Amino acid sequence: MLEEQDFIKIGEVIxxxxxxxxxxxxxxxxxxxxxxNIKISEVIxxxxxxxNIKIGEVIxxxxxxxNIKIGEEVCKxxxxxxxxxxxxxxxxxxxxxxxxxxxxxxxxxxxxxxxIKGDLTLKLRDEDRKVNLLIRLLQEKNLLKEExxxxxxxxxxxPQF
Length: 161
Fold this sequence. Notes:
The chain is mainly alpha-helical. The chain has helices at residues 4-51, 55-101, 106-140, 146-154. The chain is 86% helix and 0% strand. The model has no long low-confidence stretch (mean pLDDT 80).
């Protein structure tokens, strides 16, 4: 049965994995942005020289194009790093939930113990009857002395009235 400390530990693992993946995501996004910024600068200089186009128009054009690329790269990073972690977490939580539903309750255990006690009592009574019958038969055939019979009757599990 899971205890509070288990849920706390699960939360810590989730937090740790999220922090690690967030850091990786930031680093990858930074690399992509830096790479795209270099490409933007090169294209802008070429366009200005080749076509005498205004710098503002080229910048706007490239920023729009790169925003789409950056968005696509961010989606890829999320898809590759965060989604698998969340899928794994979902599977683990499903497994924990299914284990929690199969854990026996105290009432279930009490009923089982009571049932076993009843079965054992019946079996012990049967065995006690057999022993008492055997003592009586041996006494009738004069194979046991009266003293021996009294000693054996003192250790009965279920005394006869």
